[in-house]
């Protein structure tokens, strides 16, 4: 993997300092430089009110001055003097758009960010900054609810659905396993639901109807993820993908989940959603997502 430029969005919340410290651990491991990125979010109504442009400019300048002061305090509490660190500010009506636009302007190798924001119905309608970045970023993104105290990756979970995108996630997991000396758990979930009539007669698992399915799936998983130089285990579990992945990670002391996102947008995203985004929302450990390839 070997990232040399790491982008860390910060909002000066209680999570930001811990997130920055965790990002500095990644930077120390890979001798990378870190960019702390803060978005001054404007409202579209304000931007469109030309009559108030002067007052708006004064207000935004005041916000920027306050943000600069906060960033200086933030850096003084978290910076390791051995790691190159710079601060960048941007104005935008969308924090997620600002992040995505910036990595197009200034290429980076990795984004590290905290997941907090909207939930419930608001999340369904608007999504969150983190989930939009995860979905659309062309570079890997590490997300978490609470950052680990240090970078110590000994066990990696690599969910597999046998798609081309899934292969990218497997390859990234293998790269990280070699760099960190970690073990990989490869996991394939089978979501097929049985007709209620089977449950009436006491058949509650697809594996009972097809006893060979589990072994066939495990053989296919071993072939798909072939990595003889890495300590590995292969798991086939019946159940809904996202909660099964999150539960497995919690039960097996997983340090990092590595998986790809399909990058759905528009109607596809509204109707289909993304298992990866749900895992990001549910997992108790950090999740590294491999973004869709840049189409340029």
TrEMBL record:
Residue intervals of the UspA domain: 4-143, 153-290
- Identify the domain of life: Bacteria
Q: Which InterPro entries does this chain map to?
A: Rossmann-like_a/b/a_fold, Universal_stress_UspA, UspA
Any Pfam family? Usp
* Gene3D superfamilies assigned: HUPs
Give the family, as the similarity comment puts it. Belongs to the universal stress protein A family.
Protein's name according to its UniProt entry: Universal stress protein
Q: Which organism is it from?
A: Caldithrix abyssi
The major lineage groups are: Bacteria, Pseudomonadati, Calditrichota, Calditrichia, Calditrichales
